[in-house]
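yo, PLA2c domain-containing protein is done. seq:
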Amino acid sequence: MEIFHKHKGESKIRISRELSEGEKLGTSNRKVRVKKCLDSLGIPCNLDDVPNIAILGAGGGLRAMIALHGTLQELQKHGLLDTIMYLCGVSGSTWCMSSLYKNGDWTEKLQALEESMCARLSKYTWSVPKATKMLLEAAKDENYSLTEFWAYTVVYGMLHELDKGHLSEQQSASENGNNPYPIYAAVDERSFSKVTEYSPATWFEFTPHEASFLGYGASVPMEYFGSEYKNGELKKQKEEKSMSYLQGLWGSAIGSKTENEKVLKDIFFGFFKGEKESHSPSKESCPEGIVKGFPAPTIEPEAGDMEGSLQSEPAGASPGGFSPGSVVDFARMWQKTTHGLLTWKWGTNNNFLYKCSALDSTELVKDKVISLVDAGIAINCAFPLVLRPERKVKLILSFDYGPFEPFKALKQTAKYCKENCIPFPEIDEKLLQEPDNPSDCYIFRGEGAPTVMHFPLFNRVNCPAYVTEWRIRFTPVRCLYHVGDITKLLQSARLNVLNNKDKILQEIKYIVAHSRKETSS
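structure:
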């Protein structure tokens, strides 16, 4: 049963387990392209037999962002990317995805997009005026939390991009059939603290069409996520969250709480000290800013970007370039960020299910605001989202880029599925005996369950004798990369696809053949 609460047309919330109309359209159009690709690979099948294949990109900061890009490019090189129906990311992988989907035909432009990414990530400075402008504006919102400060300083400093675009603007790129349908993962902090990662109630997903509570089958159009609702009715429309904000929300846990707290406090207390020198790094130098290993702040505007830059400091300007007129805004931001550090509050947004009578959950509907955070604190690979039965995923390609032992997400997912009666292949512990020196591909099959192919980023095949060293060298907490290290990461990710492309093809063939048998019987 599908229940709509309507107010002014498209602002309705939806209580239903069904996929959104936008996702249905996108996957229907994508299926035609997948069939064409399978035909070209020598796997002819009817449109009804086209299997839904999902890529899962694990979290892992910049390491994950870079590695996912290499993975996708290598799949494209071998004609396998167009077999993929869904692309689902956690944390750093969402940074890669959100950048790609700004292009309606990104699957055909991966080489050019890689070059652009390398040039951007290897920058050594970030613009304080640009970040400040975003922060002061964000702090005017009553739901300002550490996520805004994290997004507009830490994530901006790492990605060298403040994206004012919106997730809903990716609808065209997700509907046209040219690209896999994107799913971005988060978790509800309140549910996570009460029922842990093993409950569907913990999980939250974003797509270009909707933002949704997985466990409740409750969704709101993406354009209205963050707006004020009461009992299913829109009370106050707010501007859609920027992509930079969402990148901060999805990627808010690049390290442990202790590591994140140190980065935040160092940047917070050093951010506005009024340092006047601007850095002009050479290719050989890599100046460190407020935080060791973090790009250096500069008061100079970014090249080609005059928006938000301070062309000159007016008389009486305070250190750091603040004019007297912005003192109130600055004080507000300072106070709210300090409060956030004391209370450790992240990702606060208006709850679109507030006092919603159509929902049974008394716990959720009584909260006027919700707190959404990085899904990596739960399961660092978003299996729960692609295991929704409505998505009918038959093959999962799980690429592990995370900081933990490479089988942790698999084991957690097996437990999640067992506790929630969700079909999932049995994970043979005998195959997982060498977490410090893993192989490059593990395959798990089960009757009535999707097949899972799991690829640890660093393994004894693509970096023999260097697995531990490279895990440390390319730690997810690392905030700054040279071009040479970006190239090494890309190559490691590519090798995992190159060395296993035939295995991937074999699994696709098996699934299509099995689907034919089921259809004929």
